[in-house]
Write a structure and sequence with these properties.
With about 210 residues, the chain is mainly α. It has one domain. The chain is built from eleven helices and no strands. Helix 4 (about 50-70) runs antiparallel to helix 5, helix 4 packs across helix 6 and helix 8 runs antiparallel to helix 9 (about 170-185). It is globular, with a radius of gyration of 17 Å. Probably interacts with PlsX.
Length: about 210
């Protein structure tokens, strides 16, 4: 019963529609009516700029971290004897938050793709792997200015790191890493199509500032 309540709480945390509240509260518009129509960090970067996009991304990441931390409220997982079960339950909590982000109860079940919240999940469980994925994301973003492409490549790097670099022994986590990469690729089909056609929008970074001078 405790686990079910915590999973529901994780879903509610994930349901906080950061991009929607920021776009409506600060900019007087609904982010879902512009750009790709997604209520996530990528579309916020594209439509509202880097400051709003960065804020949305950080809060959406925090949702994943907080959801994973809920596991420690369950007495069963508070000792080292159940470490494997703890990691599995943490992944479940994180996925519940991702589900909330994609289908937020606070925003008519129309949310984003859950990439930042997924990253928060990984950050809470394996921070070193998460930071490596951040490095990949930032490198691709700096080189291309495509948030979608950066997310896709960073997600593919995730199972590569888990399976081959860090050699994670927990089978469920290995499956989870592969599933994350597949999910990100599948949810970015439209972005991939636009990338191949050269129609994907870029985010303004330092390069834009230099181009103005």
């Amino acid at each position: 019963m405790t686990e079910f309540l915590l999973l529901f709480c994780a879903y509610l945390i994930g349901s906080v529609p950061t991009a929607v509240w920021v776009s409506k509260g600060v900019f007087g518009m609904d982010i879902r009516e512009y750009g790709s129509g997604n209520a996530g960090a990528t579309n916020t970067f594209r439509v509202l700029g880097p400051k709003a996009g960065t804020f949305v991304m950080l809060v959406d990441m925090l949702k994943g971290v907080l959801a994973v931390r809920l596991a420690y409220l369950a007495p069963y997982y508070q000792d080292h004897e159940h470490l494997t079960q703890l990691v599995n339950f943490q992944i479940g909590l994180g996925l519940a938050a991702v589900l909330g982000h994609i289908f937020p109860i606070w925003a008519g079940f129309r949310g984003g793709k859950g990439i930042a919240t997924l990253f928060g999940l990984v950050l809470a469980i394996q921070p070193v792997v998460a930071l490596c994925c951040v490095g990949v994301f930032l490198m691709i973003l700096f080189l291309t200015r495509y948030v979608s492409l950066s997310s896709i490549i960073a997600s593919i790097a995730f199972p590569v790191l888990i399976l081959y670099i860090f050699n994670e022994p927990e089978i469920f986590y290995r499956i989870f890493a592969i599933a994350v990469a597949l999910m990100v690729v599948l949810t970015h089909q439209k972005n991939i199509s636009r990338l191949l056609k050269g129609n994907e929008s870029k985010v303004p970074l330092f390069r834009n500032r230099r181009e103005k001078h």
